[in-house]
Write a structure and sequence with these properties.
Elements: E1 5-10, E2 27-28, E3 31-32, H1 33-43, E4 48-53, H2 57-67, E5 73-77, H3 84-89, E6 101-106, H4 114-123, E7 128-134, E8 143-146, E9 152-156, H5 163-166, E10 170-179, H6 180-187, H7 203-210, E11 215-219, H8 232-252, E12 256-257, E13 264-265, E14 270-271, E15 276-277, E16 282-284, E17 288-289, E18 294-295, E19 300-302, E20 305-306, E21 311-312, E22 317-319, E23 323-324, E24 329-337, E25 340-341, E26 346-354, E27 356-358, E28 363-364, E29 369-371, E30 381-383, E31 388-389, E32 394-396, E33 399-401, E34 406-407, E35 412-413, E36 422-423, H9 435-452
Parallel strand pairs: 1-4, 1-6, 4-5, 7-11, 12-15, 13-16, 14-17, 15-18, 16-19, 17-20, 18-21, 19-22, 20-23, 21-24, 22-24, 23-25, 24-26, 25-27, 26-28, 27-30, 28-31, 29-32, 30-33, 31-34, 32-35, 34-36
Antiparallel strand pairs: 2-3, 6-10, 7-10, 8-9
């Protein structure tokens, strides 16, 4: 057996999605649908991955090339699409010299796993091998028609099926392994003799059997791997299935999820043992959470790293590659954006820490803001170790506050604060005795005059 190639059918318009974005770029648990497929193919050993593009093809290609720079992913165009067989035909030139198995997979089945694809490749000993599933109602899916010996005789599309064939519960999952040379020879002989007037890839199965070659169907152990996306409803359903799977894996690895129904974790997130995720927690992108942490409730962490023993939340946000050292505390209504906090930094209330470096054991008082953007440039605030930032301090970046320094509450800090210094940057308080009584009397007289004058 030669090297394995894969053709991903991703050219469909999918009008039922009602979206300007190609359906293969819609995210499922944070990763575009097509990326799920490409990653599964690579993990299953496909050395070449060829994506057939059409609708919004330029955008699809640009997104894939940006995410998979340097990897062997090729693109071919399907102009004026005329069915799945026509889509597969477009890869012929790219695979003209290929002498090994060819996987053909849909671009809209994000739960299709590397394990399932590997199982198909292992089962394939020539001819054609396909993935099927047994459903209570096969609905609009093509039906697997088996011969008396149990081999696959044909695949009949639902719109072309007889009443007897529609009663068949085994459906075609549109995932195939073919021998490369024979696949393209048979694709050339496809004809649009069907209710849709299209070139069906499924007709290759009948041709393979007619040539005396074996056709096998591997029945999926989990029907979810066969599910595709054609509507926003199905997109939500697959997000839910994968989210539950990810949370289950975390819980089995030693993470406590207090309310899985309201906890959201994306592909690529890691969480350490004995960490507790409270309701309303969202962990996104490449976020890494250490051990023994408490996250949430109602906290969003995106592409950030949280060290062991941290407490983040409630109502907190980390984003932009924020990094928390061990034992940090980020409390309610605190946001950290592109900040690096050393161990045991505490910011408990109502603060924005953007583009910031903070040393160990520093305390950030309530209402502190790092003013990191002047309308043109993002600048950095550097705060040393064991510093004390008083409540409602405003730190105008770029600025540095030294180790062990203190800023008085309400200060606007625009200049460097040396180590161990106290910075006070606010107007001196002055009290005008009796002034408020006089002010109120004046305001009352003015109000009475307005009322009298109508």
């Amino acid at each position: 057996m030669g090297t394995t190639a894969a053709i991903v059918l991703a050219a469909g318009k999918s009008t039922r999605m009602r979206s300007k974005l190609s359906k293969v770029l819609h995210p499922v648990c944070g990763k575009p649908v097509l990326f799920h497929i490409l990653d599964a193919l690579a993990a299953a050993g496909a050395q070449r991955r060829i994506v057939v593009i059409g609708h919004e093809g330029e955008t699809v290609q640009a997104r894939v090339e940006a995410a998979y720079a340097g990897q062997n992913i090729e693109f071919v165009w399907q102009h004026n699409p005329r069915g799945t067989g026509h889509a597969a035909q477009q890869a012929e030139a790219a695979l003209a010299e290929h002498d090994g198995p060819v996987l053909v997979v849909p671009g809209d089945a994000p739960l299709l796993s590397a394990d399932v694809l590997s199982e198909l490749l292992t089962a394939h000993t020539g001819g054609a091998t396909l993935l099927s599933a047994v459903l209570d109602d096969a609905g609009s899916y093509g039906r697997i028609v088996r011969a008396a010996d149990g081999s696959v005789e044909a695949i009949v599309e639902a719109k072309d099926a007889t009443p007897e064939q529609k009663a068949i519960r085994e459906m075609n999952a549109a995932v195939y392994v073919f021998d490369g040379k024979s696949l393209f020879a048979r694709l050339k002989n496809l004809t649009p003799n069907n209710a849709q007037g299209e070139l069906y890839l499924t007709d290759v199965i009948g041709m393979t059997r007619a040539a005396g070659e074996p056709v096998r169907a591997v029945v999926a152990k989990d029907n979810n791997v066969t599910l595709g996306i054609n509507t926003r409803v199905e997109l939500a359903e697959l997000n839910e299935i994968l989210r539950k799977q990810l949370l289950k894996e975390l819980m089995l690895s030693g993470v406590t999820v207090l309310d899985p129904a309201t906890t959201y974790v994306e592909v690529g997130v890691t969480v350490g043992q004995d960490t507790v995720l409270h309701p309303g927690t969202h962990l996104r992108g490449e976020t890494q959470i250490g051990e023994d942490c408490i996250i949430g409730p109602y906290t969003v962490i995106t592409d950030s790293t949280v060290g062991n023993g941290c407490k983040v939340g409630p109502f907190a946000q980390l984003r932009g590659k924020a990094v928390l050292g061990e034992g940090c505390k980020i409390g309610n209504f605190v946001e950290v954006k592109n900040g690096t906090l050393a161990e045991r930094v505490s910011a408990s209330h109502l603060s924005y820490l953007g583009d910031t470096e903070i040393g160990a054991k520093t305390n950030i008082g309530a209402g502190t803001i790092t003013c990191n953007y002047d309308g043109f440039t993002k600048s950095k605030t550097r705060i040393g170790a064991d510093a004390f930032i008083g409540s409602h301090s405003t730190l105008i970046a770029p600025v540095t506050i030294g180790d062990g320094a203190l800023t008085a509450a309400g200060s606007v800090i625009t200049k460097e604060v040396p180590a161990e210094a106290i910075a006070i940057a606010r107007e001196k308080q002055s009290n005008l005795d009796g002034a408020e009584t006089a002010r109120r009397q004046k305001k009352r007289r003015e109000k009475e005059e307005r009322l009298q004058n109508g």
